[in-house]
Write a structure and sequence with these properties.
Keywords: Kinase, Transferase. By secondary structure, the protein is mostly helical. It is built from seven helices and four strands, in the order βββαβαααααα. A hairpin with a 5-residue loop joins strand 1 and strand 2. About 6% of the residues have low confidence.
C-alpha cells in the first residue's frame, strides 16, 4: 500500500497497479492474480484471488489508519509469531479508549484528543472487517472523516503567566505595555528618591 501525492497535493492510496481492473456494477467481483502487498490486501483477496470493491481501497486504507495510530508496521516478522500480522492481534485494543491508549504510538507522547483517536480506531476496525460486505464504502469513509474533523475540539492554548494583578487582565494590551515601559523608565528615579529623600519644606 503506497500513499502518494498528486499534483494538487491530494493523498491517494495505490497498490494494485499490476492487478486487473476491479469489478464493475454488473459484477460482484473479478478474479485476478494477487498483486497487493501482504498485510494490506484483504484476506478474501489473498485467499481466493477474488477482488471486490471493498477488498483493495477500503481494507488497505483501514490498515494505514491502524499504522498511523500505533506507529507499527502492518506486517513485521521481527515481532513475536503471534504479532507478525498487526491486525490479527491489535483489533481488541482498538475497541475501547483505555486499551487504545496502551497501543497508541509512543512518539505522540499523549498529545492527541483521545475521543478523536477512538473514533479513528473505530473507523479503522470497520475498514478491516473480516467480511467484506460489512466494510464501509470509500464514500462513507470520507463522510465519517469529515464528521470527525468538524467535531474536533480546538487545541488548547498555552497559559500565559503575567506579573500583573488579576484586575490588569481586562486592561488593553497596548495600555499594559505603556504602563510597563513607564515603570521601567522611572524605576531608577524612584529608587534614588527612596535612598536620598529630599528634606521637608520649611
Amino acid at each position: 500500500m503506497f500513499p502518494v501525492i498528486d499534483q494538487t497535493y491530494h493523498a491517494k492510496l495505490s497498490d494494485f497497479g499490476l492487478a486487473r481492473m476491479g469489478p464493475t456494477a454488473s459484477k460482484s467481483h473479478v478474479s485476478t492474480q494477487v498483486m497487493g502487498t501482504y498485510g494490506y490486501a484483504a484476506p478474501e483477496y489473498v485467499a481466493t484471488g477474488h477482488l471486490y470493491v471493498k477488498s483493495d481501497d477500503v481494507y488497505g486504507f483501514g490498515m494505514v489508519l491502524v499504522e498511523m495510530l500505533t506507529g507499527l508496521r502492518a506486517l513485521d516478522t521481527n515481532r513475536s509469531a503471534k504479532q507478525h500480522n498487526l491486525v490479527d492481534w491489535i483489533k481488541p485494543s482498538l475497541q475501547e479508549r483505555r486499551k487504545l491508549k496502551s497501543v497508541m504510538d509512543s512518539h505522540l507522547e499523549g498529545r492527541y484528543p483521545s475521543r478523536v483517536a477512538l473514533k479513528i480506531a473505530q473507523l479503522a476496525l470497520n475498514c478491516v472487517e473480516s467480511e467484506q460486505k460489512n466494510r464501509p464504502s470509500m464514500q462513507e469513509i470520507v463522510e465519517t472523516l469529515e464528521e470527525i474533523e468538524m467535531a474536533r475540539e480546538p487545541p488548547r492554548q498555552p497559559r500565559v503567566h503575567s506579573s500583573y494583578r488579576a484586575d490588569d487582565r481586562s486592561m488593553p494590551q497596548q495600555q499594559q505595555q505603556q504602563q510597563q515601559r513607564y515603570h521601567h523608565q522611572n524605576q531608577p528615579m524612584q529608587e534614588a528618591k527612596r535612598a536620598y529623600p529630599l528634606p521637608p519644606r520649611t
